[in-house]
Design goal:
The protein is of the alpha+beta class and about 550 residues long. The protein has 21 helices and eleven strands.
Length: about 550
């Protein structure tokens, strides 16, 4: 083993002893005034940038960690001394192939901010016209040597995880090597600033023209994997509450807009900023009664599948309707718990955890805490929670915590419910079902005859094992055409029956938006049965 690795292991052991982390390895708890989660967080901060990032990644796995530890690790933020500005300048010149003085009218070698992976410098682009002062930009530069340092510590983490799984039963249950693998992917994704620029551009397109949030423009001619140049945003850090309060900013509007942005990113756009800690959020207070957000740092984003979105929306709606059986059924339908799980037993477990939550006012009910508890229950039933969902859960905790810090009376349900109901209506309502049918049925009607025609041609030429007479081919072609008509009628009938069933099923969730839903579902069902009868009649 390399001397450097031995030295690093000794340093880790020394920090673990300092903060009494032996209890995480099954040893007796150390007498201390600090909770175990706080001690773990402080230890990771002392071990340096790579372990800070690992703790941040680990905080996105509350399905694997005790709640107190997961919440504490979510507080981890990078506090890293900057590297020399001249080194950053040299990195920019090497990446872009030109001197900084040729690229920028101004470049400040003193960094504006520094984190474990990169640091940011202020600059100004060269003027494009005589009256153009040049756009203010920020230049983000990857920390030199960080990839090698990360790889070395990642290798060490793998070795420690393998040792832990060999000797500690709890480590096997927590799948420590899988956690390290997830961390490795996240951290190396963050090292690619082209990827971050693409994330920023997508968020900007999704929200361009919105009065709720603004994302910076990326200057792709100046962007490379280790250098990212973006428009500089001049706002007030969300941490500066006294300054915002002094400007008369309406904190209720600000907090509710934050919730609206997050839920629209998740359900409308299916592309959400997944690192919403206070260091990445600024406020435009030009209109204090209608403040808006300015977002930065787009290294981590999240997306969900349609089934994930539906799972979340239906779970939230069922939860706030206290329909615990529906919550249990959703888990079984998604096949995230074993098919042999008794729905009554799972429902009882969910009720046990959720009922006490409703003893509090609705404004005090935490979405993030609900998801965390839901994942912990599911773990008891051998459910493996998807990484994208726990990433969303971590972000939701951040958004929720920030919102209630701004405005303690914040009612997330009031803001989020209409967004989820609108999504359910647009994606699962009758209009959406009929639109999908309108697109798919003509495609099938065109595709099936074409495939049949090609098969007949090949059969006629003897390419499929023997020839056929012209009369036999024509007769078969007529039969195929009749069959295609029957198929189209049956597809249309199936679509109507499915739409009728969905309308009927969603009626209980989406009132009062679905007034007249039972009548509409019966009409759809009768129309579908009539189409089936026509198809059957044509086939006899």
């Amino acid at each position: 083993m390399k001397l450097a690795r031995l030295r690093r292991i000794w340093q880790i052991q020394r920090v673990m002893r300092k903060y009494g982390l032996g209890e995480f390895l099954g040893r007796p708890a150390t007498r201390t005034d600090r909770p175990r989660g706080e001690r773990l967080r402080l230890a990771l901060e002392q071990l340096g940038p790579v372990f800070i990032k690992f703790g941040q990644a680990l905080s996105t796995r509350p399905d694997l960690l005790p709640a107190d530890v997961a919440v504490e690790l979510a507080k981890l933020q990078d506090r890293v001394p900057p590297f020399p500005g001249e080194v950053a300048k040299a990195t920019v010149e090497r990446a872009l192939g030109r001197k900084v003085e040729e690229l920028f009218a101004e470049f400040d070698v003193t960094p504006m901010a520094s984190a474990s992976v990169a640091q940011v410098h202020a600059a100004r682009l060269r003027p494009q016209a005589a009256d153009d002062p040049g756009l203010e930009v920020v230049v983000k530069v990857i920390r030199p040597g960080i990839a090698e340092a990360i790889q070395e510590d990642v290798n060490l983490l793998y070795a420690l995880a393998e040792f832990a799984e060999k000797w500690l039963p709890d480590a096997r249950r927590l799948r420590t090597r899988d956690v390290v693998a997830e961390y490795e992917k996240v951290i190396f994704d963050e090292l690619d600033l082209m990827r971050e620029g693409a994330n920023c551009s997508q968020l900007r397109r999704n929200w361009l023209g919105s009065e709720l949030i603004y994302h910076p423009h990326v200057f792709w001619d100046y962007t490379r994997p280790d250098v990212l140049v973006m428009e500089r945003l001049n706002g007030i850090s969300i941490r500066e509450l006294d300054r915002l309060r002094g400007l008369g900013v309406d904190f209720q509007v600000l907090s509710e807009r934050g919730v609206e942005i997050f839920f629209n990113q998740v359900f409308r756009d299916n592309f959400f900023h997944a690192d919403m800690h206070p260091g990445n959020i600024f406020v435009d207070a030009a209109e204090p009664r209608k403040p808006s957000y300015l977002a930065v740092d787009f290294g981590i984003v999240g997306t969900l599948t349609l089934s994930d979105q539906r799972y979340l929306a239906e779970n939230f709606l069922a939860f706030f309707n206290r329909d615990y059986r529906r919550v249990a059924e959703l888990h079984l339908e998604s096949e995230w718990v074993p098919s042999g799980t008794r729905v009554e037993e799972f429902e009882a477990a969910i009720r046990t955890v959720c009922e006490p939550i409703f003893n509090r006012p609705l404004k005090d009910i935490s979405f993030g805490f609900f998801l965390l508890r839901l994942f912990q229950i599911a773990r008891r039933f051998n459910m493996h929670v998807q990484p994208q969902l726990v990433l969303l859960q971590k972000t939701l905790l951040q958004v929720e915590g920030l919102g209630r810090q701004l405005y303690p009376e914040l009612d997330l349900w009031k803001t989020a419910k209409p967004i989820m109901e609108e999504w359910m209506k647009n994606r699962l309502g009758p209009a959406a079902m009929f639109e999908r049918a309108r697109v798919q049925i003509p495609e099938l009607a065109e595709t099936l005859p074409e495939l049949a025609h090609r098969a007949l041609k090949r059969l006629e030429r003897g390419e499929l094992g023997g020839g056929m007479s012209r009369h036999a081919v024509d007769s078969l072609r007529d039969e195929i055409r009749a069959g295609n008509r029957r198929n189209v009628l049956m597809i249309a009938g199936s679509t109507l029956l499915i739409a009728a069933a969905v309308i009927y099923a969603l009626d209980g969730y989406a009132k009062p938006m679905w007034d007249g839903a039972p009548a509409l579902s019966w009409i759809g069902a009768l129309a579908g049965l009539w189409l089936y009868w026509r198809a059957h009649r044509d086939g006899t």
